[in-house]
Amino acid sequence: MQYAPFAGLKDRQVAAQRGRLAAFLARQAGRWIRILGMEMRIVRSRHRWMWIAAIWLGFGLIDATQTVLSMRAEGMHHAWGRLFFTCVAAWLPWALATTSVVWLGRKFPPVKVRPLLTWLVHVAACLTIGLIFAAWNAGLLVLLNPYAEKLPLMPFTNLLWGKFFGGVLASAIFYACIQAVSYVLDSRERLAYQETETARLNEQLSKAQLDALRRQIEPHFLFNTLNAVAGLIREGRNDAAVNMIAGLSDFLRRVLDGSPVQQVPLGEEMEFAQKYLDIQKVRFAERMQLSVDVPRELYQAQVPSLILQPMVENAVKHGIAKRAQGGTIRIAASRSDGRLTLSVSNDGPSLPVEAERLRPGIGITNIRTRLQSLYGESFELKMRNQDAGGVEVSVSLPFVVAQPRGEG
Prior knowledge:
By secondary structure, the protein is an alpha+beta fold. It is built from eleven helices and seven strands.
């Protein structure tokens, strides 16, 4: 006993060391995440610059080739190497200015009638780039003399203003083209992001609906089940009571399971519905009869998780519980024309004539909402009176075979 305090101290020291190690690993993980994010941004920026350089280089090569070949065909005599280089290098200012033009387009979108400042910014930017382009071209002509003209050449200032005023329209066209291409690419990126975000939100909605459905257990079902267990114990039917408690435990474990799986094989869904019916069978005894017509070859078909239980619960609540003599619950499944049809029916009271105009119950509404989020318009949900009496709820879905667990 005298060593217990030291043992506790040692445990606390180990726990503290583990806490410091966990904090260190968390800091390192955050650091690596930030570094990875920076590297991704650098990679995207590098790719963007590579595309810009490739486009303007291609444009320059086409311009230089056309200029040299056309002048040679006309019998002109120039310094062809220097002329080809001058024509290619002349587009360098536009290549360097492309990212700035794109940034201005995002900062001041010229696609709508906006304040005058927006258009003044774009006009000023276009004229500035045009002036730099003219100065660069004039400098190349003065330094390289690609046309092999006799010295002295035209003064730099004259070349500058001549290039600038002669290229104002071309500068406006290039500037507008860059803005247009940037707007189209940004629109596609925004559209792709919106589609991804919509898909993510739909998935979250489906998960939220499934989570709400798991927790939407009618309290009377639990109370009646526990009362039935108490009755079995009073009657001395302990084995039956234990089996009912075990069935209720399995049922609640499945209902409260936090698994995000939206679709499961029909066979698995049938097993869960059977657990619910086993509990109800103990409660209603001979008042409830069950008929199942689900072919084994359909057990691998994918169906929404927890789709049958609310349909069965609705049939029990309205077709069995309200009748002293009870009735029969029928579960059926069939495949036709690439579609799977599930139906749950009872032989209890029929729906009133005005039921079609009334708002459906929470269970049917939740089923419809979940099906719409999973299948869009590719499903059909019906609730109708049967000719022989009773009500049938049916769901028609695309037939898809579930992959075995563990396969991707």
